[in-house]
Automatic annotation (TrEMBL):
Descriptive protein name: YbaB/EbfC DNA-binding family protein
Superkingdom per UniProt: Bacteria
Protein keywords: Coiled coil, DNA-binding
Coiled coil: 6-36
InterPro entries xref list: YbaB-like_sf, YbaB/EbfC
Listed GO MF terms: DNA binding
Length: 136
């Protein structure tokens, strides 16, 4: 294998390891987060984790005892939805930058970067032994 190709392979593998470490760190950061939302009337607080599981439900007042059941249900559905949305926003915040890099990584792996385009004619004229096969 040509030295420049081996160097390119090592650089690509290092970039992949770096990306994997970033993904693992992002997953750990998101796992550590929770979202807590309190209803507008301060009656109930819901806490949700990264898997959108309810990990806390606290009634801050006894108002729920005298509420019509449908009003209590609407209040709970509302705070659950808000907590879920906060966790979704957190996931976008944490993983968003990695998603942008994933597009760049896909382009690099497919040979569709600006650098590939700039050097296309050089690759076409490279000696056959550079790629270990004959020219097409």
């Amino acid at each position: 294998m040509a030295d420049w190709l081996a160097d390119q392979l090592h650089q690509t593998m290092a970039a992949l390891r770096d990306q994997r470490e970033r993904i693992d760190a992002a997953k750990a950061e998101l796992e550590a987060r929770t979202a807590s939302v309190t209803s507008a009337d301060h009656m109930v607080t819901v806490t949700m984790n990264a898997q959108n599981a309810v990990v806390g439900l606290k009634f801050n007042t006894t108002k729920y005892r005298s509420m019509p059941p449908d009003q209590l249900a609407r209040t709970l559905i509302d705070v659950l939805g808000q907590a879920r949305q906060e966790m979704t926003d957190a996931a976008v915040e944490v993983f968003g930058p990695l998603m942008d890099q994933r597009v760049d990584l896909r382009a690099a792996m497919a040979g569709n970067t600006e650098v590939d385009a700039a050097f296309a004619s050089i690759w076409d004229e490279a000696p056959t032994d550079v790629f270990g096969r004959g020219k097409d």
